[in-house]
Write a structure and sequence with these properties.
By secondary structure, the protein is mainly α. The protein is 89% helix and 0% strand.
Length: 81
């Protein structure tokens, strides 16, 4: 065995071990991110649906309020006369 082969093998083995640790860390982080995104997706969809319904209800009540004011007011008050 050549004396130059041993340091090369040590460097190669250490590099492979470091690469495996980095890949394992990246895999664990991605798995954690996937869990977080699934949780956010499950939580945000109902909230978006409810906020959209509340907004449409608020706009509709504003229109109804404006219509009732216009119907109760005489025509000369419609334009602020």
């Amino acid at each position: 065995m050549n004396m130059g082969d041993v340091p090369k093998k040590i460097v190669l083995c250490l590099s492979a071990a470091i690469l495996m640790m980095v890949c394992t860390f990246a895999y664990l982080q991605l798995r954690d991110i996937e869990g977080q995104s699934a949780g956010l997706r499950a939580e945000s969809v109902p909230e978006l649906y409810l906020s959209r319904r509340l907004r449409s209800g608020r706009l509709q009540s504003g229109r109804l309020r404006a219509d009732s004011v216009l119907l109760e007011a005489p025509p000369d008050e419609w334009m602020g006369l």
